[in-house]
Amino acid sequence: MSLRVQSITRDEHLAFVAARPSASHMQIPSWGDVKPDWRAESLGWTDESGALVGVGLVLFRPLPRLRKYLAYLPEGPLVDWHAPDLVERWLEPMLAWLKARGAFSVKMGPPVVVRRWSADAVKAAIADPGAHRLRDAEASSYEPRAFDVADRLRRAGWQQTEPGGEDGFAAGQPRYVFQIPFAGRTLEDVHGGLNQQWRRNIKKAEKAGVKVVRGGAEDLPAFYGLYTETAERDRFIPRPLSYFRRMWSALNAEHPDRMRLYLAHHDGEVLAAATMLTVGEHVWYSYGASTSRRREVQPNNAMQWRMMADAHELGAAVYDLRGITDTLEESNHLLGLLRFKVGTGGQAVEYLGEWDFPLNKLLHRALDLYMARR
């Protein structure tokens, strides 16, 4: 029998997430409050006994002048992705529920890992003149069940969104991320996994007098000043300060330690700042910002190490450095960021990516053309 999909309360949603080791920060109720341009709803899957067995945060984006919506479940939903009856029991009732809500197209990002590359494997791929993309390099490990999930989705009519652009980032959430496993490791183990350059830079920052402190809502403008400088340098469009203020109040209203802000000070000036998010045993380095001034005192390494130490103290099983480029060309401006992350000794991780299901093919195609023009 298929499961029943219905609206659930925020409290029911949050209780389900809290009972699990981790879930994406984009699949918790408060994430809907961060996105005011979308209408958010918590949905739940219940079994024959009425027990809640899966949840999802769905964001609805209206089409101009039409009561039709794009339904988006970023890095979700939180269901049994490896169930043999995934399509019939879990996804078909979801599609029916979303269609009844006015959705013309559904986008989701299954939190299913496909492949992993160790830091050494990524370094070897960068050094190999014949390797142009990470996806073409030999992975250190594969998750065979992920290919089965992808096959089922394709056969059911879901369409995989390919990572767009030369940098390998998808239009929605990143398909390739960099993570440091913490489970079963002491902080000394994590420090020992850093490369020589990282360990040297942490020491150098300490010697130079860099102090990393936790900030509050009042420090968001200082973070934002560095963030806009970073956006100009790294060629991306910055979000407004109001977005980070909303993030801070929404996430921390749900859980007092959901979002943290860290600032690296040197001689009375803030040189680097970053936000950190926590859901269960998963900790994310979310947004980072730094100035080009006084780079020689290594504020970024000092700040990241403090964040890693705090994440470890919180009991994190994984410290997630978020998106990385899939492109290994020297000309790519994001390759330096990949090298920085590889120095942590973690691993590159490929997820299944984002998938679309057009409930109304005509409107779905119109949206595709609109997004392509943008």
Give an account of the 3D structure.
There is one protein chain. This protein is of the alpha+beta class and 374 residues long. The protein has helices at residues 10-18, 29-34, 86-100, 119-127, 144-155, 187-193, 196-208, 220-234, 241-254, 299-313, 335-342, 361-373, and strands at residues 4-7, 39-46, 52-62, 69-73, 103-108, 113-118, 141-142, 159-160, 176-181, 211-215, 259-266, 269-279, 282-290, 318-323, 347-351, 355-358. It has twelve helices and 16 strands. Strands 7-6-15-9-14-13-12-11-10 form a nine-stranded mixed sheet. A seven-stranded mixed sheet has the order 1-2-3-4-5-16-8, sandwiched between helices. Helix 7 (196-208) packs across helix 10 (299-313). The longest helix is centred in the N-terminal third of the chain and has 15 residues, at 86-100. Mean pLDDT is 93; it is low at 164-170.
CATH topology of the largest domain: Aminopeptidase
Number of domains: 2
How large is the radius of gyration? 21 Å
Helix/strand/pairing category: alpha+beta
- The N- to C-terminal Cα distance equals 43 Å
Q: Provide mean pLDDT, rounded.
A: 93
What is the name of the CATH class of the largest domain?
Alpha Beta
Family: Belongs to the FemABX family.
Keywords: Acyltransferase, Cell shape, Cell wall biogenesis/degradation, Peptidoglycan synthesis, Transferase
InterPro entries: Acyl_CoA_acyltransferase (IPR016181), FEMABX (IPR003447), PG_Glycine_Bridge_Synth (IPR050644)
Pfam families: FemAB (PF02388)
